[in-house]
Specification:
Blueprint lengths: L32 H4 L1 H7 L6 H38 L13
């Protein structure tokens, strides 16, 4: 492995682990890249292939979509309520001009 020396580094100083110019080896456990890939795991996993798990995933996606739509509806109702309250309290009107003499 080639060692990069930055301008501020002394020759006998160990390399800086946070130096952007030095390539980082993130595979500390030396696991082969094929085993690390999540898409490879999903393709070979038995968890996604059973009918029960497919039904659970479908239900979770449905619940997620319902929560998303429900949150958007509640947010819309609250924003309309806030705008209505601001208009009734006349907080959106332009302030009266005051003569400075």
């Amino acid at each position: 492995m080639t060692q990069f020396i930055s301008m501020n580094q002394l020759p006998n100083q160990p390399p800086n682990a946070f130096d952007a110019n030095e390539p980082q080896n993130l595979n500390v456990l030396n696991i082969p890249e094929q085993e690390v890939s999540s898409s490879n795991w999903a393709a070979n996993s038995e968890l996604g292939n059973t009918p029960t798990n497919r039904k659970i995933i479908k239900n979770l996606k449905h619940i997620y979509a319902m929560l998303l739509v429900g949150g958007l509806i509640v947010g819309g109702v609250i924003s309309v309520g806030i705008i209505t309250a601001l208009n009734k309290l006349e907080l959106t009107d332009v302030p009266a001009r005051v003569d400075e003499r």
